[in-house]
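Journal club side-thread
Mid-discussion, someone asked how the predicted structure for our own chain would compare to the paper's figures. Pasting it here so we can look after the session.
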Amino acid sequence: MSLPVDTIARARFGERPYSDELVAVIGERLALMAQPTRLQLLDRLELAGVLHEQALVDELSTTQQNVSRHLRLLLLGGVVSRRQDGRAAWYRLADPEVLYPVHWIAGRVLAADGGVEGVLRG
């Protein structure tokens, strides 16, 4: 026997509609991730599991300062976690499910007529 969708949603996500406070937190989290460099960092961390900060700099071909700034924001937002090993910092996703909305959007874009190029052309 399967449960109705609304029952599953309430059990997993709490009462609906969402409170103003919850909507504000969701918006902040999505805004935090809605920056291209941060999305690239999160993508690399998901694929590798754990990466040294310098490996992320090398992967993205950007500056150490740029990567550090974005990782700090993601860390403060609870999206990534960090392990210090002396002077080295290792990062991982705090919760892999954080990228579910990103995967949903990527799947829809790739499935659209013309893929990414088609979506960009409008």
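Post-session note: The chain has two domains: 1-34, 35-121.
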